[in-house]
């Protein structure tokens, strides 16, 4: 393990190479690779770290519902760094990364104890303060807001939430030179016009409407420039810059105004990575790089050109599923009326039902899942009436789809679905010959009169092998 550790640290230290997934696995805190991380997930970790002597874990205070909020302190150096995660309860990626960072530091400490070298070089210069999961009540509900329904990150001025009060008190007491505001962004943010997800977005928040650059914001921008090579290497074309419009009620902007060099880190979507494990790993590398560069002052060698060259986030630039080049039939079913792309995202807070939100030319978007349906014809499909109890095996269902039935009508309780595939009962948007924006997510695609694909509540069934593509899971 120590050999792998040195290899990994050597790699991340030069910033030119990247740790492999296997290297990182050594420091991945178990049990946190999931969509929702709650207080009960971190409680045993807190208990464990409370007993270690190389860090201090204290209770900073309590949430509205009396869940403990913790402050972790490592090192006793002059430069003070404060990082906090999950002030939005449904944004857990950085909480996992903070515990992975602790695992790395612990391994380094053990190596130092065993061999007299290999300890974290930054420890002499930095006092690192970490608040993992500032909003445990929101985490419990998988909600952005606290238990009062308040967005803690819009409470920096009013300070009506205990969570916001605790963060402000900590900042005033610690007086950090550097702040790291750790969030998740929705997976529909693209990195500029790259048609790729912004897996990481960074920002040195403005401290006034004019978005001026004072020395403290300048330093935050340099910190971003300094890690751009690492990110360009790890995530080619998948780094974005978050909108820097001044937000007077937000903590990042308020801290920036207090002279704290603040960096916003937003973890975002990635292909085939529903729980954002790559963003989690890169977060750890970012933290280690920043600690090293704050300790040595090396980030001051970077100008703002790196920061300024990061493409802005493209909100809505990514879709969950894009099916392109679908032939829409004439109203009487003869010939092709138009050829369109259909682009879907999940509704609500990014989880759940598919929503058709673009019909037409979707070529400007990137898709987490894409399918070229050239030569295939759209049909809403027929309704199979539920007139009595129906036990639906996979074989029976595939036959119905092949016969042109896309959905069922009638009493849902009559259907026992044992096919392992999704079914649509009385879906919207099937009463028109063409797909309906915001409404259609169930239809059939045929080639030479043979049904090839069924889209059922936005989930794609390939009839040839009964395979299912579920494009809407994850964060
Ligand atoms: Zn957030």
Word description of this protein:
- This protein is α/β, with parallel strands linked by helices and 475 residues long.
- It has two domains: 313 residues, Aminopeptidase (3-Layer(aba) Sandwich), CATH 3.40.630.10; 152 residues, Roll (Urease, subunit C, domain 1).
- It is built from eleven helices and 22 strands.
- The strands form five sheets. It has an eight-stranded mixed beta sheet with strand order 1-2-4-3-5-9-7-8, with helices on both faces.
- The protein is elongated, with a radius of gyration of 25 Å.
- The N terminus is likely disordered.
- The protein binds zinc ion (ZN).
- The site of zinc ion has 3 residues, from loops.
- Zinc ion binds next to loops.
- This is Zinc carboxypeptidase.
Query: CATH homologous superfamily of the largest domain - what is it?
Result: Zn peptidases
**Cα-atom Rg, whole angstroms?**
25 Å
The side-by-side strand order for the widest beta sheet comes to: 1-2-4-3-5-9-7-8
Gross morphology is elongated
Number of strands: 22
Question: Low-confidence spans: pLDDT under 50, at least 5 residues?
Answer: 1-5, 10-18
CATH topology name of the largest domain: Aminopeptidase
Biggest β-sheet strands, sense, barrel: 8 strands, mixed
Question: How many helical elements?
Answer: 11
For the record, the CATH class of the largest domain is Alpha Beta
How far apart the termini lie comes to: 32 Å
Number of domains: 2
Coarse structural class:
alpha/beta
Small molecules in complex: zinc ion
Helix content estimate: 25-40%
Q: Which percent band covers the strand fraction?
A: 25-35%
Q: What would the average pLDDT be, to the nearest integer?
A: 93
CATH architecture grouping of the largest domain: 3-Layer(aba) Sandwich
